[in-house]
Design goal:
This protein is of the alpha+beta class. The protein contains three helices and 14 strands. Helices cover 24% and strands 36% of the residues. Strand 6 and strand 7 form a beta hairpin. 26% of the residues are buried. About 10% of the residues have low confidence.
């Protein structure tokens, strides 16, 4: 009986872990030149930190759209689509160039790069993050390059102050198929059955 309780607890724990993996998160920032990087979420975003730090953080995860969302790069996402949002912000103290590759654990659907559209989608901001009222000149400029393939984003930005920023929209990570749960539970049940037989023997 105790063995079966333990197996059930393990099953519940594994199912919880698998369910948690449905978030789409920033995996890493690689191949960066011209700046430092951080994936720690900013809670108070100001216009001119002048840190030369590329900050990349997760915003709303597994958000279900209540209306169509027109991306500036990537088309239109229909009402009911589940998405995850992420923010990139870089502010050097003087004219500089920066290149970086950002990897996510779900496919990129598109991004917003103009001040109006970034501001209008601030409902996707992370809980506890605020943009100061003086935070302006959001977005990119004509000499900035941003492209993506699958879950990889490549940027080549040039800026002074207040820098560059975009909001990236990704799909959510794949939810494990029901068959995955069934197989896992069957395996745990078999382990429990074998353990019970050994004790009886």
């Amino acid at each position: 009986m105790k063995t079966m309780i333990k197996q059930s607890a393990i099953a519940i724990g594994l199912m919880t872990v698998l369910s948690a993996q449905t978030n789409a998160a920033v995996v890493d920032v690689s191949a960066i030149t011209g700046a430092n990087s951080s994936t720690v979420a900013l809670t108070n975003v100001v216009s001119n930190p002048n840190t030369n730090l590329l900050s990349v953080w997760n915003e709303q995860q597994n958000y279900t759209l209540t209306s169509d969302l027109v991306l500036e790069s990537g088309g239109t996402l229909m009402t009911g689509t589940q998405i995850s949002s992420h923010f990139l912000f870089w502010d050097p103290s003087s004219n500089k160039s920066m290149n970086a590759t950002i990897n996510f654990d779900a496919d990129i659907l598109g991004y917003f790069f103009e001040e109006a559209t970034i501001t209008n989608t601030n409902y996707l901001s992370a809980a506890g993050t605020t943009f100061t009222s003086s935070f302006n000149n959001l977005g990119l400029e004509s000499n900035d390059s941003t492209s993506f393939t699958g879950s990889t984003l490549d940027i080549a930005w040039k800026a002074s102050s207040p820098g560059d920023s975009i909001r990236v929209i990704t799909a959510v990570s794949a939810v494990p198929e029901p068959s995955t749960y069934a197989l896992m539970l069957a395996g745990l049940g078999l382990v429990g059955f074998m353990a019970a037989r050994r004790r009886k023997a």
